[in-house]
Amino acid sequence: MSVLGLSNSGGGGNYIRYMPSMNAWVINKEEVELKQFVVDHGSVKSGWGLMAEGQAPQWIWDERLGVQGKRPDGDYRRGFSIKLFVKEHGVVEWSSTGTGPVMGFETVFEEIWNAKDDNAGKVAVVKYAGSEALKVGKGNTRKPKFEIVKWVARDSIEWDGDAPAAAAEEPLDNDDF
């Protein structure tokens, strides 16, 4: 296993973060009003992450999704990374080791994972439905809440710079999400 940063080698990757302390979503350091997004469930990774102020995140990914590898030395915490498509911003990467964001992600991802076989070739459109304040140990956090709205053809989204397939079974339009 190798330690990986989340950004591409040039450091210019788009990212999204949920900030429990502000109860806000941030894309590339700019606060945004997140309403809906599309989840690329095939891109999810779980592992041990180290996120320190002023430094690029470091990850040691699980060899198999959800099968926890050995905890590395240091302040690594369990976390995830996944690609999302946000209409106004394109493809962004959401990764976190934060308690609230991880709890919110796990809840919706379990629903997506359990429904993916019945929706072959599709990806879930998910609505952000606010957040819930939680007390965890001695601290406080917020757990984002989500609802699956529908499923759309995976190839109707431009993932990794690939153009959407011309014959997508359910092409997206501006009203889709």
Q: Kindly name the structural category.
A: mainly beta
Q: Describe the sheet with the most strands.
A: 10 strands, mixed
Q: What is the 3D shape?
A: globular
Which oligomeric form is depicted? Answer: single chain
**What letter string, H or E per element, gives the SSE order?**
EEEEEEEEHEE
User: Helical proportion?
Assistant: under 10%
The number of distinct structural domains comes to: 1
How would you state the average pLDDT, rounded?
A: 85
* Estimated radius of gyration: 16 Å
Counting DSSP H or I runs of 4 or more residues, the number of helices is: 1
Structure explained in plain terms:
This protein is mostly beta strands and 177 residues long. It has one domain (3-156). Helix content is 10%, strand content 45%. It has one helix and ten strands; from the N terminus they run ββββββββαββ. The chain has one helix at residues 99-115; strands at residues 3-4, 15-19, 24-27, 30-32, 36-50, 58-61, 77-86, 90-96, 122-136, 139-153. Strands 1, 2, 3, 4, 5, 6, 7, 8, 9 and 10 form a ten-stranded mixed β-sheet that branches. A hairpin with a 3-residue loop joins β7 (77-86) and β8 (90-96). Mean pLDDT is 85; it is low at 1-12 and 162-174.
